[in-house]
Amino acid sequence: MQFVNPIRDNETIQAMKEELRKNSIRDLLLFVIGINTGLSLLDMLNLKVQDVWDGQNTKEFLLIKEERTGEDKWYYLNSKIREIVTEYLSGKDCKPEDYLFKSKRDCRPITRQQAYRIINQSAREIGISENIGTHTLRKTFGYHAYQKGIAISIIKSILNHQSTAETLKYLGVSKAEPLPIKVDVNL
Hints:
mainly alpha; two-stranded antiparallel ribbon
């Protein structure tokens, strides 16, 4: 398995979103959920419509039993995710038990290989030359959460890592790098 990097700048993230939107809203949704939740690819591919959609609106939280650890976890579906889910599912004739990332060929979810091709091809189209893959989504989530001041212990928990050192290495961040922390209680 090759080492992949997070997408560090917002302009590149926006370019990826635009490129993915050209192909399909489903592909855009895969990217947006990945970079905003830190879910593993396997957990994302196993999502069903009912996990994120109540029939009329996008749910605020996603509860899943993680494939790798077997534990139940809650994930916040922020406004970016909810916007794309609504666009993707509104007016679409799908059943609650349908896979969210359903293959165009059958009723099963897209494969890990197809997800890789979707992300990698879009990255190449916008000129990213670094190694990019499906793990880039989780790394991008963790990197930006860390840059926004989310405690590394929380990120470690979301990513199911054993230590903060493992998480920092995974994100490509050095403890020596200064990170200004903005604590804005704003009472």
